[in-house]
Specification:
This protein has 176 residues and is mainly α. It has helices at residues 34-68, 78-100, 106-116, 120-124, 129-151, 156-175. It has one domain (34-175).
């Protein structure tokens, strides 16, 4: 009564020395869909706007007022202090957003972008505020996209070396 209605078919090998299937090896890069790349670029754009906005507001209403009152302070340091605060806040927000989107190595992307664009805010402070925000947003979107693409490499050492090369290249371009 208890007959087997189903008999599984198992693959057979013709030669015992050669396996039928190839071993599963992980890919050299972590997969990223186009949607994930667009989200990464959008987060970079948003962080660029937030960072630039915070930098401009802190320079104008906090550090500019405190350091430049009475003419006794060092007004030249106000933009630097505002950039430091803005980059830290932007880095925290960027890490949170990228982690929520499940982007591979979010802190790596944020640190590389912050280091490479450290002096970019100081370069755009002389522009009109809306141009400064637009340029910073585009720069952050591009760096988040580039470093997000590099961070996909599974070998951390190779990813780190490529990131260092790109950071140095970006820093040289910004200082030229």
């Amino acid at each position: 009564m208890a007959e087997k209605l189903y008999t599984p078919i198992t693959p057979t090998r013709t030669d015992d020395s050669v396996p039928m299937t190839k071993p599963n090896r992980p890919s050299l890069v972590v997969g990223m869909r186009v949607r994930d790349l667009l989200r990464l670029l959008l987060v970079g754009l948003l962080i660029g706007v937030v960072t630039s906005g915070i930098s401009l507001l802190m320079n104008r209403y906090v550090f500019g007022v405190v350091l430049c009152r009475d003419g006794g302070g060092d007004c030249t340091q106000a933009p630097l202090y505002s950039v430091i605060i803005a980059v830290v806040v932007g880095g925290i927000l960027g890490t949170v957003f990228l982690a929520r989107l499940r982007i591979f190595r979010p802190m790596f992307i944020v640190l590389a972008s912050a280091i490479s664009l450290w002096s970019a805010h100081l370069l755009v402070t002389s522009l009109l505020w809306y141009w400064a925000i637009v340029i910073a947003a585009i720069l952050y979107a591009l760096t988040y996209g580039a470093f997000g693409w590099i961070a996909r490499i599974r070998s951390f050492i190779l990813s780190l070396i490529l990131t260092i090369v790109l950071v140095v290249a970006i820093r040289l371009l910004l200082q030229a």
